[in-house]
Amino acid sequence: MAEQGATKNRILDAAELLFAEHGFKETSLRAITTAASANLASVNYHYGDKKGLIRAVLSRYLELFIPAFKMELVALHQRDEFDMNDVFLCTKRPLLRLNSFKNNGTTIFMSLISHGYTDVQGHLRWFITTHYDDVIQLFIGAVRRAYPCLDPETLFWRLHFTLGASVFTMTSSTALCDIADSNFSNRVQTEDLINRLVPYLAAGVTAPIELRRV
């Protein structure tokens, strides 16, 4: 049993690194089993198939991030007033917590989320919306309370633009921090990045809504 548990964890760790670096589509099960010193039968035994493995890899992060994010959102909704900055700051502590789980955990998590969209992993989006819809609705509800004039279509686009900016910033964090250090002699940490990113995202979501041309 101990050996099975060790094999299961090796597969997860190898898959996580390869998925984060190369994406879900470009990473084969053969590459994962080679890196994990395991065989295909082990993957099938523990995870069923590649989709099951993808969900298991992401779940390790979601199971830490989602409960913490939900707590922040519940506390926010109990306030009489808040703005869009407050909404996006709800992600700060849950994201930073991932770095305690694993070195560069925040970057790895955001990279996995990014590949979930760019690799057209419909099953992954289904998995997230099915298992965590209550938290998604809490977040959307907070956005709507902070800026009630957003119609559903505009909200859809702005939240996806927000996701794109967040993913790019966090997955490129190492390079961006190195550039900031070189150009401005300013050592930037993950927390600093989030603090700089939040006002930008808030301003984008609350930008004036242009009238559509007929």
From TrEMBL:
<dbReference type="InterPro" id="IPR009057">
    <property type="entry name" value="Homeodomain-like_sf"/>
</dbReference>
<dbReference type="GO" id="GO:0000976">
    <property type="term" value="F:transcription cis-regulatory region binding"/>
</dbReference>
<dbReference type="InterPro" id="IPR041586">
    <property type="entry name" value="PsrA_TetR_C"/>
</dbReference>
<protein>
    <submittedName>
        <fullName>TetR/AcrR family transcriptional regulator</fullName>
    </submittedName>
</protein>
<dbReference type="InterPro" id="IPR036271">
    <property type="entry name" value="Tet_transcr_reg_TetR-rel_C_sf"/>
</dbReference>
<dbReference type="InterPro" id="IPR050109">
    <property type="entry name" value="HTH-type_TetR-like_transc_reg"/>
</dbReference>
<dbReference type="Pfam" id="PF17939">
    <property type="entry name" value="TetR_C_30"/>
</dbReference>
<dbReference type="InterPro" id="IPR001647">
    <property type="entry name" value="HTH_TetR"/>
</dbReference>
<keyword id="KW-0238">DNA-binding</keyword>
<dbReference type="Pfam" id="PF00440">
    <property type="entry name" value="TetR_N"/>
</dbReference>
<dbReference type="GO" id="GO:0003700">
    <property type="term" value="F:DNA-binding transcription factor activity"/>
</dbReference>
